[in-house]
Specification:
Number of strands: 6
Number of helices: 6
Low-confidence stretches: none
Number of domains: 2
Mean pLDDT: 88
Distance between the termini: 96 Å
Helix content: 25-40%
Amino acid sequence: MDAVLHIPAGERGLIRVFALDMPPEQTRFLREPGALAQVLGVEEINLDQVEIFPISDLEELGLAGYLTQGCAVPADQLRGDHARLSSLSGHVLLIRSRAFGGVETYLTPARQITLIGAYGEDQTQWAGTSLHSDSAKPYSASHLSPRANRSKARRIGASIFAVVMLLLLILLSTLVGWP
């Protein structure tokens, strides 16, 4: 592949799918440190964010099914490429955006590596409505003075002690027959 692929700085949530037109021995070699980075024309790549596997391992699930069910890619993103993904054979390479560490990168893949597509993972929306109640404000809870806190703790402790002693007295009276 002669084209240069630009990965912008801070990119997240994309999975790039590449077809590998090489023998299985060479695809196994790509898992070695530095080998994949070399054929992609980059300094380094996080291999924890890369998958290389034969499509035949997916059996009836297929590559499109793996992307939707295993990688959380929405099915509507794959509609246009479904036929192309289903027709692939041999090995594929999946690279997540995190493989580049958030750094701007330019890929110049070797000619045996063909980009099939880039698909966005389903992202969790963490945004919510803001809270407007008085109890949500910082330091809005009532505060007891240190003396009041100690007094409260003593009352709780005395109550627990009294309950335990009462239970021991009942137990002792039943065992010994004490009136």
